[in-house]
Design brief:
Length: 251
Amino acid sequence: TAGIALAEVVEGTWAQIGDELVSVESLNISTGEMTIKRGVLDTVPAQHAAGSVITFWDEFASAEETEYISGETVNIKITPVSGSGEVALSDATALSVPLVGRAARPYPPARILVNGFFFPTGLLSSVDLSWVHRNRLQQTGGALIGFEDGGISSPEAGTTYAVAVKDVGGNYIFSQGGVTGQNFSIPLGILAELSSGGRGTVEVYSERDGLESFQRVTIPVCIAESGGDSLEFIMGDTAVPPAGDMIIFEI
């Protein structure tokens, strides 16, 4: 909705939603419908609220020739241009951008499956992960590759993978780096440490030469308690648990 200059958008270029880059596969200007590939280049799929801004800047970016180092903070100003002219530099608000050396970081793995599914819902009795390679040196041209696309033949030299498990408070309860394969099973003993009904998150990312991928794939999980014959019902984000001690299920 409220698209501006959409006729200038070129299919096959990227757009940005939040911190996620997506590939514009098609765009219908009259209906506003767009088909995209999620999590291209060094980004991964993320949740976005309704009404999030989509910026098409792939072919409209300029570069700063000054070289900076990772850890520096750069102050920048954006001066919008309209039919009334350009906003004066003195009137523009300065934005602070911390530099993280993004261009040198290895790409995160993609097509990450949990027990054979993308972002599974419901109770899990185990967490068996699999993924495919990405390689920043081989993805410098051609069609953009999305998160769900097949893998690159090999990762960048020296790249390994890491898996972490966090509880609902964001605290690490498990971390394993140096994984060289394309699959990993989280030990059940670790999963048993998840409290709050077995809820937590699994993170998968890549590492190379002391650098971590710019983003991590984060997957919410809910682990079933072992033993017993009880049946557990999990209320989703949009469901409100009923009051009292009786719940009526309607078919």
